[in-house]
Amino acid sequence: MPPALVLGLAIFGISVSGPLVRLAHAPPLTIAAWRLGFSLCAIAAMLVYTGTWRQYRRLTRGDVLVALAAGASLALHFWSWIASISYTSVAASVVLVNLSPVIVALGSAAWLHERPTRAQVAGIAIALAGAVLLAWGDAQRATPGAGGGGFVLSSRALFGDLLAIAGAVTVSGYLLVGRRVRQKLDLWPYVGLVYGACFVCVVALAAAAGQPLTGYAPREITIFAGMALGPMLLGHTGFNWALRYRPAYVVSLVALGEPVGATVLAMLLPGIRETPNGATLLGGAVLLAGVAYASRPRRS
Q1: For the chain, what is the mean pLDDT?
Q2: Domain that holds residue 16
Q3: For residue 61, which phi and psi values (nearest 5 degrees)?
Q4: Ramachandran area for residue 43 (φ above 0: left; ψ -120 to 50: alpha; else beta)
């Protein structure tokens, strides 16, 4: 399957995440634990069906530790980014967590020796400018009484901003570590190992935070299952598949399409019906232009 098609489907998958979280009434870590649990059930079935679980035999102890570190990074990303929305505005959180392509590009150059071209650096700058513009448009609705739509600086908001930055750093580590281990394992063994480690970390964090994992109505369970099918199996798994064929910073940059997809879905879904303003639409267009420009194949 062409990597571009897989990345497109993955963008759609992760774009479902925000609207589903908006519709759910469970705490953030509970949502993450359930979506990981459902995903691991499907992954375990694929491991048995394909027989690829045997690939675990050829892993070294170092390989396992690196994969576990990727899973732990993903768990910390789920916690820090979702938690940030409780302290700062959604707009600020989205902008700051989208610093990940810059972090991944720097990490790829230093650790994976995958230096971005000038065109890809320009694409990163264009995409991030679009993300800022999109979030600015969202801010006009999020805080209408704060100085004509601006943010009110507070220690609570600053803490949320720091959590969002932590989300950018941890998801960057997840992508960078994942690209190295992904070269040694097929898709299902890799995501089984990484998602399994992530699940254990999320459950531990939920227990420490006192967020219950049981006692939810069928409506909530259905939403959890939808998040496993969309954001995890289609979204994150699609990105993990693409890590074998595309540099980590390109995969991370393409993921910037999530705000656009989530905005469209939030506009169309009953129960949400959030209509974006002009600045949001313009920012989305600029963002996608940056993604397209930076994702072009390198010239030989």
Answers
A1: 78
A2: 3-294
A3: -60, -40
A4: alpha
User: Does residue 107 lie in a domain region?
Assistant: yes
Structural domains counted in the chain: 1
Number of H helices, E strands in the chain: 14, 0
Question: Which amino acid is present at 241?
Answer: W
> In this structure, is residue 299 part of a structural domain?
no
Helix (H) or strand (E) holding 159, with range, is: helix 155-182
166-214 tens-digit pLDDT? 888 898 888 777 776 777 788 888 889 888 999 999 999 899 988 889 8
Tell which residue, 289, 293, 294, 295, has the closest CA to residue 133: 289
CA–CA distance from 208 to each of 86, 186, 204, 212 (Å)?
18, 34, 6, 10
Q: What is the dihedral of CA 119, 74, 16, 123, to 10 degrees?
A: -10
Find out whether 151 and 89 touch, Cβ atoms under 8 Å: yes
Q: Is 300 part of a structural domain of the chain?
A: no
* CA–CA distance, 286 with 278 (Å, rounded to integer): 12
CA angle 126, 130, 134 (to 5 degrees): 175
For residue 41, is it within any domain? yes
**Residue 102 backbone class (left: φ over 0; alpha: ψ -120 to 50; beta: rest):** alpha
Single pTM value for the model: 0.74
pLDDT tens for each residue of 236-270? 778 878 877 877 667 767 777 777 777 777 778 77
